[in-house]
C-alpha cells in the first residue's frame, strides 16, 4: 500500500492533536483522525513525519513529506510556497493572557508583548493590535507549548492562536481568555507546487468525506463545542 506521508509537529494542542505516545505513529485528535479518513478514502497508509514548525513546508518542497496537515491557515505567504487543498476546517482566533489580566479587547493590548507563530495567520491578526509589541515564535519542536510557557512565566503578556486550542485554556486557573476575533480562517493541506496530481487526489477525497458527513462526525467527536462550518466547507475553494 502506498504511503501518504504528512508533516506535523508533536505537541499538546488538544483537541486538534495531542502528544504522540510513540513518536508520531499514533496521534490522537481531530486533525489526525480527519487525515486518516482521507488516507483511507485514497487507499493509502498514513504516516506522520514529525518536524519542528518551520521545517514542515520545506520538507514538503523537498519531497520528504507529501503534505503539511498541521493547523495551516490558507494565507498568502503560505500560498506562495505550496498549493492548498479545499478547506477541511474554519476557525477563529483567540488571545490568551495570565489569570487576572484585565485585557478584553485589542485596544487593551497596547504596550503588551504579544506572542504568535512567525508568518502565521495568528501573527497577521496580532499585527493589527494597536501599540502591541509582537514576539514571533518558531523553529522549535513544540512552538505551541513554548508560547503557553512564555505567557505563564511572564516572558510575554499574551499569545494569539486559534480558538480551538486557546479557548479550552481559558478554563485553566493560570490563564484567562481575553477575547476571540471572528476571523473565520480556512485551513487546508499544503502540497508542493510540482505535485498537482496529489493535490487533486487529496482535494477529491476531502470533498467526498465532507459531502457524506464523515468529516462532520469526526469534528463533532473532538470539538462538540464548536459548530461544524458546513456551508464554508461545502463551497470548497481555498481562500
TrEMBL record:
Q: Which SUPFAM superfamilies match?
A: Periplasmic binding protein-like II
Q: Where is the Solute-binding protein family 3/N-terminal domain?
A: 3-226
InterPro entries according to UniProt? Solute-binding_3/MltF_N (IPR001638)
Q: Give UniProt keywords alphabetically.
A: Signal
A single Pfam family, by name?
SBP_bac_3
Q: Which CDD domains match?
A: PBP2_peptides_like
**Keyword Cell division recorded:** no
Question: SMART domains of this UniProt entry?
Answer: PBPb
* Entry keyword annotation includes Signal: yes
Q: Which PANTHER family match?
A: AMINO-ACID-BINDING PROTEIN YXEM-RELATED (PTHR35936:SF19), MEMBRANE-BOUND LYTIC MUREIN TRANSGLYCOSYLASE F (PTHR35936)
Question: What's the name of the protein?
Answer: ABC transporter substrate-binding protein
- Organism for this UniProt entry: Gulosibacter faecalis
Amino acid at each position: 500500500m502506498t504511503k501518504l506521508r504528512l508533516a506535523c509537529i508533536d505537541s499538546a494542542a488538544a483537541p486538534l492533536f495531542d502528544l504522540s505516545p510513540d513518536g508520531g505513529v499514533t496521534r490522537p485528535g481531530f486533525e489526525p483522525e480527519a487525515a486518516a479518513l482521507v488516507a483511507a478514502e485514497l487507499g493509502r497508509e498514513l504516516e506522520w513525519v514529525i518536524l519542528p514548525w518551520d521545517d514542515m513546508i520545506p520538507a514538503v518542497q523537498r519531497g520528504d513529506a507529501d503534505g503539511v496537515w498541521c493547523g495551516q491557515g490558507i494565507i498568502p505567504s503560505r500560498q506562495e510556497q505550496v498549493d492548498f487543498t479545499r478547506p477541511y476546517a474554519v476557525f477563529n482566533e483567540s488571545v490568551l493572557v495570565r489569570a487576572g489580566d484585565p485585557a478584553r479587547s485589542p485596544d487593551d493590548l497596547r504596550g503588551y508583548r504579544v506572542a504568535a507563530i512567525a508568518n502565521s495567520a495568528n501573527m497577521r491578526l496580532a499585527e493589527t493590535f494597536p501599540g502591541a509589541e509582537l514576539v514571533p515564535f518558531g523553529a522549535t519542536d513544540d512552538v505551541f507549548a513554548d508560547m503557553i510557557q512564555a505567557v505563564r512565566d511572564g516572558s510575554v503578556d499574551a499569545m494569539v492562536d486559534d480558538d480551538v486550542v486557546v479557548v479550552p485554556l481559558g478554563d485553566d486557573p493560570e490563564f484567562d481568555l481575553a477575547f476571540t476575533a471572528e476571523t473565520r480562517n480556512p485551513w487546508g493541506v499544503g502540497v508542493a507546487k510540482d505535485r498537482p496530481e496529489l493535490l487533486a487526489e487529496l482535494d477529491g477525497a476531502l470533498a467526498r468525506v465532507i459531502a457524506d458527513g464523515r468529516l462532520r462526525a469526526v469534528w463533532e467527536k473532538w470539538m462538540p463545542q464548536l459548530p461544524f462550518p458546513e456551508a464554508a466547507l461545502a463551497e470548497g475553494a481555498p481562500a
